[in-house]
Amino acid sequence: MIDLHIHSTASDGTFSPEETIYAAKKAGLTAISLTDHDSVAGIEQAQKTALQERVELIPGIEFSSKKDHFDLHILGYFIDWKSQKLEQILTDLRQSRLKRAEKIVAKLNSLGFKLNLGEVKVKAKDGAIGRPHIALALVKKGLIPDVKTAFDLYLANGKPAYVEKKILSVKEVIYLIHELKGLAVLAHPGLIKATPERLKHLILELVNLGLDGLELYHPEHTDEQRAFFTALAQEHDLAETGGSDCHGLAKPTGFNIGSLNIPDAILSELKNRLHTSG
Ligand code: AMP
Ligand code: ZN
Ligand code: FE
Ligand code: FE
Hints:
By secondary structure, this protein is an alpha/beta fold. The chain contains ten helices and seven strands. The protein has helices at residues 17-26, 43-53, 84-110, 117-124, 131-140, 147-155, 170-179, 196-208, 223-235, 265-276; strands at residues 2-6, 31-34, 56-67, 70-77, 183-186, 213-217, 239-242. Strands 1-2-3-4-5-6-7 form a seven-stranded mixed β-sheet. Helix 9 (223-235) links the parallel strand 6 (213-217) and strand 7 (239-242). Helix 5 crosses helix 6 (147-155).
């Protein structure tokens, strides 16, 4: 079994890159991908442990993007993660994440929460800073009972402490992933708030930009959604992938590493595309 969507402390997961490998081993997985938001900083660390533990590590990343007001997350697999160009782009994205965190903290302050950026940075360590870190800092200070409440009341899109983050366009993301010799997969399409007809059109547009696959297995997908996107993947000859989207303690247990029993064949199919996509 495999798990192709995992966050570590390089972004907003709470397990170190090494710990994700140990957890994968414990869950009996043969392969995982680290897919941190705007960061490949965990890959080198994870690689060493992966070799020791004989768990295959697929270098990955997760980019946030938008199309026609729909939030889209794009996963990049098998990317040349040592690329200079990538590092420059990621440094820039992470710097704007820091500025955005500052703005979110200011909004929370004006809402009466006594929180400072330093307390959020403690949660983020050196990783790409995100809303889960802010939520965790609020919970740690006893200002809000849990992460979910922090999102539901303040941090989610449309809530009083929400601030947009800098993103690349889907075209930029897909082209970048291809330039890095990787495969571009639309993450958790079931979370896109669009009608089935709109989703079909959206995915067609992404296919025209070069999208390589759809994430079918995700803890927040219903069986109906998986069936719907499987049909679309088949229609457009897209790879079928999946993962737990584990964030360690920053998300509930349903998101645990290896929780979805994803078959190894998914990974072999993905690799086949790598060889045929030139
Ligand atoms: P950011 O990159 O700062 O925009 O934060 C995105 C992260 O927040 C993603 O990893 C999501 O899984 C997480 N997230 C988004 N909405 C929620 C929510 N309602 N509860 C918990 N985590 C969430
Ligand atoms: Zn995340
Ligand atoms: Fe995501
Ligand atoms: Fe994710």
